[in-house]
Design brief:
Elements (H helix, E strand, L loop, with lengths): L1 H20 L1 E7 L13 H7 L2 H7 L3 E7 L17 H20 L3 E6 L5 H11 L4 E6 L19 H10 L7 E6 L1 H4 L1
Parallel strand pairs: 1-2, 1-3, 4-5
Helix pairs in contact: 4-5, 5-6
Amino acid sequence: MKSFSGLRAAFHIFRRDLHHHHCVGIIAAPFSKGQQRDGVQRGADLIRAAGLVQKFKEEGCVVKDYGNLTFEDVPNDEPVGRLKTPRAVGRANELLAGAVQKVKSDGNTCVMLGGHHSLAIGSISGHAASRHELSILWVDAHADINTPSTTPTGNIHGQPLSYLIHELHSKYNTYKNYIYIYIHAYIH
């Protein structure tokens, strides 16, 4: 299948990129406000505890852990139309984009640990601002391409790809190195 060969190629590129730079900067973004379920904010700490830093070191990488970002509560974050918690999600992604730019300006390959799906907006935007040639590998069980008018829930975690396509299309040539794999299509 073409999709899986593309996935294999993308992992090869990422591994080559790690070995080329030899320095990895890890940012943790323990954020969960773009949806209502508790738990995703613990993901970054659990991934660290599972040995991610050690694995990078075994691959010969120098690792700089930039720590966990702190997200302030946004009082009275009322819905805008059908969108839930838009201000909290927007501020979190602005903070994350700046943190990614810092990691990149330090010369590191950035690895962002979330958090939830809406953080892709800040992670990819931060990379795009730091480097005009951008490769994106999007693997997900859900399309995450709803828009504010098509979302069945109002949760922004189902929409980051639509925002990214809209925002990045006019600024960067992001589609040249873009692989989109919608896993749900393969398991149903």
